[in-house]
Request: fold
Amino acid sequence: MRAGRIILAAAAVGGLATCDYFLPERGGAYIQGGDAMRGFALLETGAHGCQSCHAIPGIRAPRGVVGPPLAGMARRGFISGQLPNRTGVMVAFLRDPARLLPQTGMPDTHLTLDQARDMAAFLYTLEDPDAR
Ligand code: HEC
Reply:
């Protein structure tokens, strides 16, 4: 999470319009058009209810327990233990989870493609599994 925080802070200070998040351990994968700061801001609004089901580092309340905590998401090998944790798969999963995993408990939260990219970019800043 340290690295993620630093990058987010740098993006905030620099006022970057887009932040192609760089993942060294994934060979430099980035999310085209994704902006981690925008994703974080969108999460904070609570508009899509993510935090009512997930504990998300940096997002204080309500830290729901229906879904898994999202700390360390960048380092997980799989999404929901089944899908390869790659940027494109993550964006598709966030947009329509049941299309990829018909039995999933994760609902369609009606994200646009841009919103899903931004949220995914933020999720890939979450490297520390113990972050709160
Ligand atoms: C109604 C509760 C609920 C809401 C709202 C919800 N999720 Fe989920 N989410 C889940 C559940 C349950 C799972 C586990 C799904 C599975 O294993 O099939 C999950 C899985 C995930 C995963 C994969 C986690 C992992 O450990 O692999 C991510 C990432 C995720 N959700 C992000 C989000 C985001 C971002 C939002 C908001 C746009 C959101 N979720 C909204 C319940 C929810």
The first helix runs from residue 2 to 14. Residues 48-50, 52-54, 66-68, 70, 73, 76, 79-80, 94, 101, 104-107, 109, 111, 119, 123 surround heme C (CB under 6 Å).
